[in-house]
From TrEMBL:
Gene3D superfamilies, alphabetized: 3.30.450.40, Heat-inducible transcription repressor hrca homolog, domain 3, Winged helix-like DNA-binding domain superfamily/Winged helix DNA-binding domain
Stated name of the protein: Heat-inducible transcription repressor HrcA
Domain Heat-inducible transcription repressor HrcA C-terminal residues, every copy: 105-321
Family: Belongs to the HrcA family.
InterPro entries per UniProt: GAF-like_dom_sf (IPR029016), HrcA (IPR002571), HrcA_C (IPR021153), WH-like_DNA-bd_sf (IPR036388), WH_DNA-bd_sf (IPR036390), WHTH_transcript_rep_HrcA_IDD (IPR023120)
UniProt KW Membrane keyword: no
A Pfam family the protein falls into: HrcA
Keyword terms: Repressor, Stress response, Transcription, Transcription regulation
Entry function: Negative regulator of class I heat shock genes (grpE-dnaK-dnaJ and groELS operons). Prevents heat-shock induction of these operons.
Length: 337
């Protein structure tokens, strides 16, 4: 066995043992637990070389070693194939995401499932639905001058808003407005909805113009909501499971997770590799997230939106990468239907 591949096997063994035990790893433990085919003395020499290259380090006065951010990076870069999920994990993904046609529920299910699979904080950037079109529109009188406006998109997304109408109107007035708007909006995407409503409102009789104007404002707000960038999270309690992973405080990390602008910027900057994944480790992240690793994958139309996990650098990278990619791919297939 050549020297370089053996050192990589030693590094891989150190990463795997440290991720599993959170205890610094010594040469004797490596020889006992892994089929390295060499003596403890040779492994110590390899560990000394790895330490000199900045790939492992000794915490405090411990005789063992732990991976550095640079060591984790080399380990991750050498993962050539992302292993598939187990049959049980695949069934769990399919059952949970097939359980609803409502996109809001689907997003919530996805982020909770990813947190459960990885035992990390799961983050999901809401999909851009400009490619979706209007499937249906409902306007229901609730009495006392209030109307419930329900917008249903081809993606399955359902949004609603209640509108207060100052001037009196009849059920017939409401039906005229609804049918006129629906006739011009059906099959139209959010980006072109405003222009379609501009045309529709010109065809509505003067007696229903006030009603139409109020309902148009509600529809504009619903379309705008669908185009906003936003993040949903699950599993933040997982950060506190092993407080030793964060030598200082998880407070700043939790604050960073609450800052949607920070997370959106991070996800936008992450480029996918050949496995369809992005991995940022430790100091590759800025600010309060410099003690964490972030694994993300694109999903949905054009793979623009991302979902992923945030956790300590001491992370099961192969397993986490597999879970992130699997949920992203399954979510993409559902959204494409």
């Amino acid at each position: 066995m050549s020297e370089l591949p053996r050192r990589m096997k030693v590094l891989q063994a150190i990463v795997e043992d440290y991720v599993s035990s959170r205890e610094p790893v010594g040469s004797k433990a490596l020889v006992d637990r892994h089929d390295l085919g060499v003596s403890s003395a040779t492994v110590r020499n390899d560990m000394a070389a790895l330490e000199e290259e900045g790939l492992i380090a000794a915490p405090h006065t411990s005789a063992g070693r732990i991976p550095t951010d640079k060591g984790y990076r080399l380990f991750v870069d050498r993962i050539s194939d992302v292993r598939p999920l187990s049959a049980a994990e695949k069934r769990a993904v399919q059952m949970l995401l097939d359980a609803t046609d409502d996109i809001n529920d689907m997003m919530a299910h996805s982020v909770r499932l990813l947190a459960q699979l990885t035992q990390q904080v799961a983050i999901l950037q809401y999909p851009h639905l400009d490619s979706a079109t209007v499937r249906h529109l409902e306007m229901v009188s609730l009495g006392h001058g209030r109307v419930l406006v329900v917008l249903i998109l081809s993606s399955g997304k359902v949004d609603q808003r209640t509108v207060a109408i100052e001037e009196p109107f009849t059920e017939t007035d409401l039906d005229v407005v609804k049918q006129t708007f629906l006739g011009h909006l059906q099959g139209v995407g959010p980006a072109h909805a405003s222009a379609a409503m501009e045309v529709a409102i010109e065809l509505i009789p003067p007696t229903e113009q006030h009603l139409a104007g109020s309902l148009r404002e509600a529809l504009e707000a619903l379309f705008a909501t669908g185009r906003e960038d936003r993040i949903i999270l699950a599993g933040t309690a997982n950060l506190a499971r092993t407080p030793g992973d964060f030598p200082y405080s998880i407070g700043p990390i939790l604050e960073a997770l609450e800052e949607q602008v920070v997370l959106l910027k991070l996800l936008t900057e992450m480029d996918q590799d050949l496995n369809g994944l992005s991995v940022r480790i430790g100091t590759e992240n800025s600010g309060s997230l410099a003690e964490t690793s972030v694994i993300a994958a694109g999903y949905g139309p054009g793979q623009i939106s991302k979902l992923g996990v945030v956790g300590p650098t001491r992370m099961d990278y192969p397993g986490t990468m597999a879970a992130v990619r699997a949920v992203a791919r399954y979510l993409s297939r559902i959204l494409a239907q």
